[in-house]
Design goal:
This protein has 421 residues and is α+β, with helices and mostly antiparallel strands. Helix content is 69%, strand content 9%. It is built from nine helices and four strands. A four-stranded antiparallel beta sheet has the order 1-2-3-4, with no helix packed on it. A hairpin with a 7-residue loop joins β3 and β4. α3 packs across α5. It is elongated.
Length: 421
């Protein structure tokens, strides 16, 4: 009884916390996540393909390509814009009314200035060349979101599984303690402690289940798939973490954007004035009543004169865009190298942590086995049993998290290297 009194004093906060958790969970209908999750058959690659179909970049890609194709066709024409037709009629009916009549029709065709047509074609070709790397970069970013979400799902699944095990162990311990209380081998306070532990474990399970359902909902919203992955994190670590700058989608996208900026600057430097306009028209004129009509042909060529008011702002904007593209390329290279270094170090640290967590779990298992045996023989009290059980649970949870952290680090390294699932 003396030891039970001290156990009550030591674990009174534990009992209060367990009762509070019971009151909180009693207001919410518990949800069993196992009935909400279907059987898992989806791989990360299949999920990426499904999410890409739903992404804005994929859904607009066909029209983007059609736009570039239309611009390419327009640049292949021998006129730089759409023709303009002009119809005019003059008469003196409102004043003299001597019979003067004139009808005029004219068509104006905008022409490419020398060198502008070929520069325009080169610019559009550069933009088409940049389209695919931009799509690949968007797909890689989407893969990063899926990898992180899949890692969170794996961690949540482990936490849920261990919480279920913890609840089952707590219920078994409660039955054992209640039998001892009925037999008079231990105090009633020990049964209360065991019941409080059950309530705590049940509350932890509800929290883990809620997290699992929330992540599952996010996964389905991102991919549109009814299933979630479990083994999708088992990505193979690349044999060498050396980064090839020309192969990473972010660097390829930045390089092609730089080429497009150079092409736009070349076009701006070539296009120094508005397009020339070729006009061809015919007019039919009658000077007075009874006079014969005269038909004339008119040809005209309008040559706009360029100036600094037109060209200076455009050149400054094109050069600023080129500087920005160069800076983006430099930043992409630096960021890619930094990401590879950071994720390589993170993977090494995660592997070391996994080894230490495995050793801790093994030692905790041995201690738990010894204390459990002593508790059954009456040589250890309930607080000691609870401490060892809690330590074993924490050690197993740390080991499982460390295992998923290694897989998460592998995925991050693959992401840093620009590798698709």
């Amino acid at each position: 009884m003396f030891s039970s009194f001290f156990a009550w004093r030591i674990f009174l906060p534990l009992t209060a916390a367990g009762l509070s958790a019971l009151q909180a969970t009693a207001q919410v209908q518990p949800v069993d996540p196992l009935t909400a999750l279907p059987s898992v058959t989806t791989t990360l690659r299949q999920a990426l393909d499904a999410a890409w179909v739903l992404s804005p970049q994929s859904r607009t890609s066909a029209n983007r390509l059609a736009e570039l194709q239309a611009r390419q066709s327009a640049a292949g024409s021998w006129i730089s814009g759409e023709p303009v037709a002009t119809l005019a009629h003059r008469t003196d009916r409102l004043n003299a009314n001597s019979g003067f009549r004139e009808y005029e029709a004219e068509v104006e065709l905008p022409l490419f200035n020398p060198g502008v047509r070929s520069a325009t074609q080169r610019q559009i070709a550069a933009e088409r060349l940049a389209f695919e790397p931009q799509q690949a970069l968007a797909r890689l970013k989407l893969a990063g979101e899926l990898r992180e979400l899949a890692a969170s799902l794996a961690t949540a699944g482990i936490e849920q599984e261990l919480a279920q095990r913890k609840l089952a162990e707590a219920r078994t311990l409660t039955l054992d303690v209640e039998r001892r209380v009925k037999a008079g081998d231990t105090a009633r306070v020990d049964a209360l402690l065991a019941q409080a532990l059950v309530h705590q474990a049940d509350a932890a399970l509800q929290t883990a289940s809620s997290s699992q359902i929330r992540l599952t909902t996010q996964w389905r919203a991102l991919t549109g798939l009814p299933t979630v992955p479990t083994a999708s994190l088992a990505e193979t670590s690349p044999p060498s973490p050396a980064l090839d700058p020309s192969a990473h989608p972010a660097i390829q996208a930045a390089q092609t954007q730089l080429q497009a900026a150079l092409a736009r600057l070349a076009l701006t430097e070539t296009d120094r004035r508005d397009p020339m306009v070729l006009g061809a028209g015919m007019s039919r004129e009658r000077p007075a009543f009874g006079a014969g009509g005269e038909t004339t042909l008119r040809l005209a060529l309008k040559i706009p004169l360029g100036g600094e008011n037109r060209n200076a702002p455009r050149l400054a904007a094109a050069r600023a865009e080129l500087d920005d593209a160069q800076a983006q390329l430099d930043a992409a290279i630096r960021q890619s190298l930094a990401d590879v270094d950071a994720t390589t170090a993170e993977l090494a640290a995660a592997r070391r942590t996994q080894v230490l967590a495995s050793q801790r779990a093994a030692l905790s298992g041995q201690v738990q086995a010894l204390v459990t045996k002593a508790f059954r023989l009456g040589e250890a009290d309930l607080p000691s049993r609870l401490r060892t059980d809690n330590e074993k649970f924490e050690a197993d949870l740390a080991e499982a998290r460390a295992r998923t952290d290694v897989q998460r680090a592998v995925s991050k390294l693959n992401q840093a290297l620009g590798l698709m699932p």
